[in-house]
Specification:
3 helices, about 210 residues, globular, single chain, eight-stranded mixed beta sheet
Length: about 210
């Protein structure tokens, strides 16, 4: 299911809440919902107020895991309403499956996405950029993950940067991580459209999940 235009964040949360409730009462099926939002910041359950540097856009408190992140045009947000009651009730394994789905999707465009211990999300090595102060290679985040569970049904989900305005991340410390930056498919020099990404997400989904 793909949303039209820019979906207001409040509307998306209300829709997810209603759909998860329908899944609990047996009237709703699992759903993957692809949207774009107008520019905004969201604060996860671990967000620190000091990481909100400049509230240049609306800030939404949300019950998902994680810290501050940005959503906006040019970023694909993937809301995953999936039933973990039939997927093992293993939160860590579920998050790893989401990461693996993103990594395989990025590989369709020749991008090597990687995970890092202690850093949720998907990262891309940037040997083309100056190293960090300690000499280690700079890595940029291309996809964020933040989920919420209610009676083992998931919602919220993933965001993948296609061509958002990366300057908009300057109002926060993304995911509470300093030093490393944020990138997108277009920032990496790839002429990828939102439709291209959606097609790759569909192609790789069944390798990690089944509906």
């Amino acid at each position: 299911m793909i949303g039209d235009g820019l979906t207001p964040y409040e509307s998306a949360v209300a829709e997810m809440e209603a759909h998860v409730a329908s899944m609990h009462d047996g009237s709703g099926n699992e759903r993957i919902w692809l949207v774009e939002h107008p520019p905004l910041y969201t604060a996860g359950t671990s967000a620190k107020q000091s990481d909100l540097l400049s509230a240049r856009f609306p800030v939404h408190e949300t019950g998902r895991g994680g810290q501050y992140t940005y959503h906006g045009p040019g970023q694909r947000v993937v809301y995953t309403m999936l039933d973990l009651n039939k997927r093992g009730r293993d939160v860590r394994a579920f998050v790893q499956s989401l990461e693996a789905w993103v990594i395989e999707t990025l590989a369709e465009f020749g991008v090597t996405g990687e995970t890092r211990e202690g850093r949720v999300g998907v990262w891309v090595a940037r040997p083309d950029k100056p190293p960090l102060a300690d000499g280690s290679m700079r890595e940029d985040k291309i996809a964020a993950i933040g989920i919420k569970l209610r009676r083992w049904i998931s919602f919220h989900g993933i965001s993948i940067n296609v061509e958002p305005d990366l300057e908009h991340y300057n109002g926060i410390v993304p995911c509470g991580i300093s030093g490393h930056g944020v990138t997108s498919l277009v920032d990496l020099g790839l002429p990828v459209t939102m439709a291209d990404l959606d097609a790759a997400l569909r192609l790789t989904f069944d390798r990690h999940f089944s509906m």
